[in-house]
Amino acid sequence: MKVCGVDDAGRGSMIGPMVIAGISIEKKNINKLRKLGARDSKKLSPKKRDFLYKEILKVVDDYHVIRIPPKTIDKYVFKHNLNHLEAQKMADVITHLKSDISYVDSCDVNATRFGREISDLSNKSKVKSYHHADSRFVVVSAASIIAKVSRDRSIARLNKNYEFGSGYPSDKKSVNFVKKMVAAKKPLPSSVRKSWKPVQKILGLS
Predict the structure, then answer these.
(1) In angstroms, rounded to a whole number, what is the distance separating the alpha carbons of residues 60 and 113?
(2) d(Cα 117, Cα 120) in Å, to the nearest integer?
(3) Which of 35, 139, 168, 199 has a C-alpha 20 to 30 A away from that of 73?
(4) Along the 206 residues of the chain, how does pLDDT read in single tens digits?
């Protein structure tokens, strides 16, 4: 039986892509992920995540990563439909990985509803959706590491052109980067999510 784990990274960021990643592995091999020490990526140092990223790819049968650009995120946020976009992309990952059962980390307050939507979109009956799945299921922990490292690499590439830090609203460097661009009346780069409330506030739109 092939089991899949899916998670996102960068959903709350105001700069850069949101990344959806999934891994698939035979059920009998899941313990190998536990032995590696795979756990929620937020609880690991960047160095440990990088190490585990390489080790996870040696153990899993397949993996798939989707990067969602800010322009697409903005389109869905303005329609108040971000959860649907994430469900759609998670369904794409599951379809690509061809697993028998999938575990996903729910961004919807109603985890069951979120799982049902992904199941419908992927034509897969066995989609298990939970809050904090990245802490509860090692297959989702592994996916969270792949997603986080993939996003960090995207942010590192963007920082070569614009020094804005992590891209999160909690990062003063990121907020100040947007403020300086707006104050200088320069167009915001395509990497900035114009629909995000902190950005809207700086633009004087909220």
Answers:
(1) 28
(2) 5
(3) 139
(4) 999 999 999 999 999 999 999 999 999 999 999 999 888 888 889 999 999 999 999 999 999 999 999 999 999 999 999 999 999 999 999 999 999 999 999 999 999 999 999 999 998 779 999 999 999 999 999 999 999 999 999 999 999 999 999 999 999 999 999 999 999 999 999 999 999 999 999 999 87
Return the structure tokens found at 16.
Answer: 């850069």
How far apart CA 155 and CA 73 sit, in angstroms, is: 16
CB 116 within 8 A of CB 123: no
CB atoms within 10 A of CB 171: 16
Report yes or no: 201 and 178 within 8 Å, Cβ to Cβ. no
Report which residue type is found at 78: F
CA–CA distance, 97 with 177 (Å, rounded to integer): 38
Rounded Cα–Cα distance for residues 158 and 201 (Å):
23
Among 76, 138, 52, 59, residue whose Cα is nearest residue 103: 138
Helix (H) or strand (E) run with residue 20 in it: strand 18-26
Q: Tokens representing 33?
A: 């992920």
